[in-house]
TrEMBL record:
<keyword id="KW-0256">Endoplasmic reticulum</keyword>
<dbReference type="GO" id="GO:0005789">
    <property type="term" value="C:endoplasmic reticulum membrane"/>
</dbReference>
<comment type="subunit">
    <text>Interacts with ERF2.</text>
</comment>
<keyword id="KW-0472">Membrane</keyword>
<feature type="domain" description="Golgin subfamily A member 7/ERF4">
    <location>
        <begin position="21"/>
        <end position="133"/>
    </location>
</feature>
<dbReference type="GO" id="GO:0002178">
    <property type="term" value="C:palmitoyltransferase complex"/>
</dbReference>
<dbReference type="GO" id="GO:0006612">
    <property type="term" value="P:protein targeting to membrane"/>
</dbReference>
<comment type="similarity">
    <text>Belongs to the ERF4 family.</text>
</comment>
<dbReference type="Pfam" id="PF10256">
    <property type="entry name" value="Erf4"/>
</dbReference>
<dbReference type="InterPro" id="IPR019383">
    <property type="entry name" value="Golgin_A_7/ERF4"/>
</dbReference>
<protein>
    <recommendedName>
        <fullName>Ras modification protein ERF4</fullName>
    </recommendedName>
</protein>
<dbReference type="InterPro" id="IPR051371">
    <property type="entry name" value="Ras_palmitoyltransferase"/>
</dbReference>
Amino acid sequence: MSQGGGTPSAGNPTILHAGKVFIQRDYSDGTSVKFHTRLPPELEGMIERHVFEATINRLNEFYAEAEEGSCGTYCEGCIGCITAYLIYMCSETHYEKTLRKISKFVASQNERIYNPKGLQLIDPTFRGLRVIEITIFDRPGRT
């Protein structure tokens, strides 16, 4: 494991830095937005493995949905091109709508699961979709 914000090795996709754990992108299936689902050792005992994996898997599903090409997304692109992209001043793209759903999902996960355990899941869009940041709060009685 790399400490202090270094680059993780291929076998360990997390970095711990000053009460923060970073879940790295998983490039095993290409460059689409997907994150590693393994529970970092720093979070063991703080959150159940299946809960953590369910959260990351759901985020990965949202990003796959956002990047999915469909007739609607292609038409959306064509209409954008025809209107010199002025249409986007009036409406959101499929990708933007999905990012909004992701933000709501992260907020609900924090409220229901992570915050009560002294953790805070940070929306990956705030980190440029490079990592998922999990902040570990100091709680009285924990060493």
